[in-house]
Amino acid sequence: MAEERQKLLDEEGDISSSGPRNESRPVKPMSALCDPRRLLHRIFVLLFMCFLGFGSYFCYDNPAALQTQVIQDMKLNTSMFMQLYAWYSWPNVVLCFLGGFLLDRVFGIRLGTIIFALFVCVGQVIVAVGALLDLFWLMEIGRFVFGIGGESLAVAQNTYAVNWFNGKELNLVFGLQLSMARLGSTVNMNIMGSVYNRVADLVGSTGHTTLGVSLMIAGVTCIFSLVCALVLGYLDKRAERILNKEQGGTGEVIKLTDVKDFPFQLWLIFIICVGYYVAIFPFIGLGQVFFIEKFNFSPPEARAINSIVYIISAPASPVLGFMVDRIGKNVIWVMCAVFTTLIAHMMLAFTFWNPWIAMSLLGLSYSLLACALWPMVAFVVPEHQLGTAYGFMQSIQNLGLALISMAAGSILDNKGYLFLEVFFSACVCLALIAAVMLYFVDYLRGGDLNLSASARAKLLKCSNSDSDSQITTVPTYLHWRTEVY
């Protein structure tokens, strides 16, 4: 091992000992690929980082892709069906505070990533076995176990990114990770129906056995992500040995006593977060049958349009994030995103216009809100409270998703899709009211949430000389951490 490190260090010395790098003496391709200081090697590592969460995002929306089949084969009503999403969210009401602590203080990033990937794999297997045995309560347990690993795996993924990349590289890296996450969700939405039909042809009939086998096949993607976790652990350990560096941490500092010091603007941001996201994810979870029943779409067409939010989000989020960074005016962008989402839901509820229009608006506004909302937390709390603020924001988001998922299922069973869309519109209206209040409260208090990018840069430059200033730039990994979800 020492010989390997010395060989790499000798190569570095040959390149840099005479001053600037001699472009006429390039590093051999294999040396560049194996040296953790070289860009080529880090790109190789990035490949595994991107696929680390693929299985989790693929399997998260398995119920949405197989909504009709799950309800029929397991003999459920919609309220029971939505429990599969609620049980995913329940453990993350607490784990948002503990995930970073476990990675930093208990397991370490490498072992922690493997453990969380194992939770995802085991949870998906339990869900599949529950379907095979026609035991819905076992499927719920599986989703709970799956949820324990899913959110924390996203934290580990972003921690790896921060450890391996820095500066402006991070924006591209997180954009690529987000795109891969959306790719997993999109592929799931569009192929799981075909997987189910192919299994049904092989089995000879549909039923809970066909559903269980289909979910077990989907679990292969989780095994793939586990393999990525193992490879990443090896590569990170090797880099630590060669470069004599320590394991990186998440950088999160969680102190629940900080909650009492949160400003009013931050609580408004929390309300916007919950009111908005509960009208997105539960809707996607129930969207397939909605498009079949109201617009007479075929199941493949319904799955395709239900995935358009993720398809648009993959390329749009990095682009819109760059735009918001360059322009500023975060509160205005949040208001625009929430208002556009309200229009999209009202179109789906009260018109028979082509739903591709409304869903495309929903995809763009969803991406825009994530880029504008999450960084604002860092503008209203000091740096030492950022970990607590983001953890609390994730916690109440998951609590809202769990409760609204159950409520949405009950409303659909008793009132139908029109009332459900009105309910989602009401949630978005709550977010819009909070956004308007945030604008005026920030304006009256002389805050900087709605400053232009140039004005904020000047303010930040002045504040850098004051160590007690509460104005800071958002840690990029925290910004993307929940948006990836």
What can you tell me about this protein's structure?
By secondary structure, the protein is mainly α. It folds into 2 domains: 1-7 and 27-252, MFS general substrate transporter like domains (Growth Hormone, Chain: A, Up-down Bundle); 253-485, Growth Hormone, Chain: A (Up-down Bundle). It is built from 24 helices and no strands. The protein has helices at 2-16, 29-34, 39-52, 54-60, 62-65, 67-73, 78-89, 92-107, 109-132, 136-164, 169-203, 208-218, 220-243, 264-277, 281-295, 299-306, 308-327, 330-350, 355-373, 377-380, 386-414, 417-444, 453-463, 476-484. Helix 3 packs antiparallel against helix 13, helix 7 (78-89) runs antiparallel to helix 21 and helix 9 (109-132) packs antiparallel against helix 10. The longest helix is centred in the middle third of the chain and has 35 residues, at 169-203. The protein is globular, with a radius of gyration of 23 Å.
Structure described in brief:
Residues 1-10 have a biased composition (Basic and acidic residues). This protein has 485 residues and is mainly α.
How many domains, in number, for the residues?
2
- The dominant shape is globular
Terminal Cα span: 39 Å
CATH topology of the largest domain, by name, is Growth Hormone, Chain: A
Q: What would you call the quaternary organization?
A: single chain
- Overall residue-averaged pLDDT value: 84
The percentage of residues in β strands lies in under 5%
The CATH first-level class of the largest domain comes to Mainly Alpha
Named CATH architecture of the largest domain: Up-down Bundle
Global Rg: 23 Å
Percentage of residues in helical conformation: over 70%
Biased composition (Basic and acidic residues): 1-10
Domain Major facilitator superfamily (MFS) profile: 39-445
Membrane topology: Multi-pass membrane protein
Family: Belongs to the major facilitator superfamily.
